[in-house]
């Protein structure tokens, strides 16, 4: 599992008291402590972001950052609602500075971008919030290691780690919801407010929508990993057929990977949009903020590679499903899909078109993990391909002679291997197993006594076990079924477990 690692932005210092004026009719001066509290919580956010930048990846405390953002966002919403209700006015339009981390930079530096309006600070805070949730999920998954491949792991230990994996899925679904809210609501409100001035690609609706789809694809990939967990160890010991009895439906796995690939492809197309829009590029160059109007190539390569990887896995499981359905009738289809998957994985292993493992583009630690992941899948595909090819080349059928019912003979036959264009017509629609957790903006801190727990991290931890993962259905066990639009049945919800709410 490869979750994208975000480089978190940093921000400059600012005091809300410098530009906020109390214009309420009551003149109770109750807004002064509120403004001071908002300044303090933003200073805390700035300090945590600077500390995060100086800390090594394995030691970063994303949970602390998420909690600081949970404290700051109600304060910021409080100021914005007070300005909207005219209980506060602005002495001048505030200017917030943030360092961009998703924009393609000159000289590999992260430029500091000055942005006007409170909406700008809200947008960058939400962007940071989604990034922190995704990085926290990545840290949680990396701490688990390849536990499902450990031969001596007990059922209790595997279940406990499955639950932590489920927690990471919940974090990614939350991140997807935050990015979607930013794209569909917060940035639209900013546009409606009439704020002018250039913006980096980080804060375009297309890029934020791309990040939402990428987080959802990452969550789906983790859900597939959990689905395979009970049979993973047997599959590693003996790759290829026969499949373990605990193995999930191969048709379902193919559809889940197809949806992952589709999400990554859509995310890549959206992420490339700002660079293709001439006005965006010109605005960025004229602003002097040091960005090209395009997102960083690292993100584009990640989306490209993940789309190719999950496409290969989808073709693998389509081939296995055809082979398990009967070599005598679908042997050629099985060989065709598996040969297709083999070519794709070989490209990813460093071929002319593959970029996943090139040393000059990917850090050493991540490159090693990706190489192991692709190599492992390639070995599995080769084992299945060798088996089904041998079976397809040596299928025997009984032929009854016409002149005598007592005479018979054996005839060798095989199914022809379809062309890739023919195989593409046999690919089913993908299936989504997870969905974004819609982001609910917190109740403004000023004058509100009802806390909003629906968007808090504590609520996410408590509800993470209610996240459903797919299980096979009757339509998934039958590769000829035409009911792909049927909703995936879900596993029973788990209401709680020991250690809920802990920092894993």
Account of the 3D structure:
The chain has 504 residues and is mainly alpha-helical. Helices cover 55% and strands 7% of the residues. The protein is built from 13 helices and eight strands. The protein has helices spanning 31-54, 62-84, 118-144, 155-192, 205-237, 250-276, 278-287, 297-325, 327-348, 364-393, 420-424, 457-463, 474-477; strands at 20-22, 88-90, 95-99, 103-105, 112-116, 291-295, 395-400, 408-413. The protein has a two-stranded antiparallel sheet. The protein has a two-stranded antiparallel ribbon with strand order 3-5. Helix 5 (205-237) packs antiparallel against helix 6 (250-276). The protein is elongated. The two termini are 18 Å apart. Mean pLDDT is 80; it is low at 278-291, 351-362, 447-475 and 477-504.
Helix count equals 13
Termini separation? 18 Å
The helix-and-strand class reads mainly alpha
Identify low-pLDDT runs: 278-291, 351-362, 447-475, 477-504
Helix and strand run: EHHEEEEHHHHHEHHHEEHHH
| Helical proportion, percent range | 55-70%
The average pLDDT score comes to 80
How would you sum up the major sheet? Answer: 2 strands, antiparallel
Query: Could you give the count of β-strands?
Result: 8
The gyration radius over C-alpha positions equals 27 Å
Shape: elongated
| Beta-strand percent range | 5-15%
In the sheet with the most strands, the strands line up as 1-2
């Amino acid at each position: 599992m490869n979750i994208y690692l975000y480089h978190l932005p940093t921000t400059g210092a600012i005091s809300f008291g410098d530009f906020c004026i109390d214009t309420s009719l009551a003149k109770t001066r109750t807004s002064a402590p509120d403004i001071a509290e908002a300044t303090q919580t933003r200073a805390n956010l700035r300090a945590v972001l600077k500390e995060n930048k100086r800390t090594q990846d394995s030691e970063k405390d994303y949970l602390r950052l998420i909690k600081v953002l949970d404290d700051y966002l109600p304060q910021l919403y409080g100021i914005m609602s007070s300005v909207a209700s005219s209980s506060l006015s602005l002495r001048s339009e505030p200017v917030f500075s943030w360092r961009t981390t998703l924009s393609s930079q000159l000289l590999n530096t992260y430029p500091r971008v000055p942005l006007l309006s409170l909406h700008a600070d809200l947008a960058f805070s939400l962007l940071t919030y989604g990034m922190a949730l995704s990085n926290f999920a990545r840290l949680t998954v990396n701490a688990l290691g390849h536990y499902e491949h450990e031969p001596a792991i007990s059922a209790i230990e595997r279940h406990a780690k499955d639950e932590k994996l489920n927690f990471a899925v919940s974090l990614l679904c939350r991140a997807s919801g935050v990015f979607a809210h930013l794209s569909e609501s917060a940035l639209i409100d900013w546009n409606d407010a009439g704020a002018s001035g250039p913006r980096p690609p980080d804060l375009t609706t297309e890029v934020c929508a791309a990040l939402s789809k990428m987080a959802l694809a990452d969550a789906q990939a983790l859900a597939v990993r959990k689905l395979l967990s009970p049979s993973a160890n047997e599959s590693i010991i003996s790759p290829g057929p026969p499949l373990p009895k605990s193995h999930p439906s191969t048709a379902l796995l193919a559809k889940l990977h197809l949806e992952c690939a589709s999400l990554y492809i859509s995310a890549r197309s959206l992420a490339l949009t700002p660079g293709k829009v001439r006005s965006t590029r010109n605005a960025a160059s004229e602003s002097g903020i040091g960005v090209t109007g395009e997102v960083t190539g690292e993100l584009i390569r990640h989306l490209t590679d993940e789309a190719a990887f999950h496409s290969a896995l989808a073709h693998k499981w389509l081939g296995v499903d055809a082979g398990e359905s009967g070599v005598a009738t679908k042997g050629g289809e099985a060989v065709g899909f598996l040969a297709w998957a083999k070519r794709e994985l070989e490209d990813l292993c460093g071929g002319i078109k593959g970029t996943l493992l090139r040393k000059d583009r990917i850090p050493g630690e991540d490159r090693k993990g990706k190489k192991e992941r692709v190599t492992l899948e390639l070995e599995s595909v080769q084992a299945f391909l060798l088996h089904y090819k041998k079976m397809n080349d040596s299928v025997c059928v009984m032929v009854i002679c016409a002149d005598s019912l007592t005479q018979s003979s054996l005839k060798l036959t095989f199914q022809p291997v379809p062309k890739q264009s023919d195989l593409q017509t046999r690919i089913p629609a993908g299936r989504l197993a997870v969905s974004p957790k819609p982001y609910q903006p917190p109740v403004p801190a000023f004058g509100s006594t009802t806390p909003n727990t629906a968007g808090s991290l504590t609520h996410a931890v408590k509800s993470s076990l209610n996240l459903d993962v797919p299980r096979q259905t009757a339509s998934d066990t039958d590769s000829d079924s035409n009911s792909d639009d049927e909703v995936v049945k879900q596993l029973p919800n788990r209401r709680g477990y020991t250690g809920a709410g802990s920092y894993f």
